[in-house]
Amino acid sequence: MSAESILYSEPTAAERRLLRALAALWSARSPDWAEQVQVRRMSDGGMGSLLLRLPESVEGPRQFRERVAELRFTDADGVEVLASLNVDQHLVPLELDVWKTDFSRLVHVPDNLEATRL
Fold first, then answer.
1. Strands 93-100 and 80-88: what pairing?
2. Nearest residue to 34 via CA among 116, 92, 114, 105
């Protein structure tokens, strides 16, 4: 087991729900990747951003290529949240970027994200 693999873990149920919703919005790839992804929390003040790793992720440096899906929802504290799925130079999911408009910690990912598509 490599040192890098120790840093990644299975997503929580709420994280997986958010990743599934974004995967469903990305038409260029089958949404099955959301079931195989491993995550590593990013230092974002608790807003919920994640680095993503899939079995086919290329070893070595990965670079942001583009945002392929995004959705908006209201957190339990009433603050708007924008969640974006970004891919790397190989079009492999790279990160889940979560931004709360007041930069506070994410409280709750809603159960129904389908109605919140942009």
1. antiparallel
2. 92
What integer is the mean pLDDT of 82-95?
94
Which H/E stretch holds residue 18?
helix 13-25
The dihedral through the CA atoms of 26, 17, 94, 115 has a sign that is positive
Q: Is the pLDDT of residue 4 over 60?
A: no
Tokens of 84: 């974006």
The 10 Å Cβ neighbour count of residue 107 is: 14
Return d(Cα 49, Cα 30) in angstroms, integer.
22
**Total-model pTM:** 0.85
User: Using the 8-state DSSP alphabet, how is residue 58 labeled?
Assistant: P
Does 112 score more than 80 pLDDT? yes
* pLDDT of residue 2 exceeding 50: no
Partners of 83 in the β-ladder = 71, 98
CA 56, chain centre distance (Å): 17
* Mean pLDDT computed over every residue of the chain: 88
| Length in residues, the chain | 118
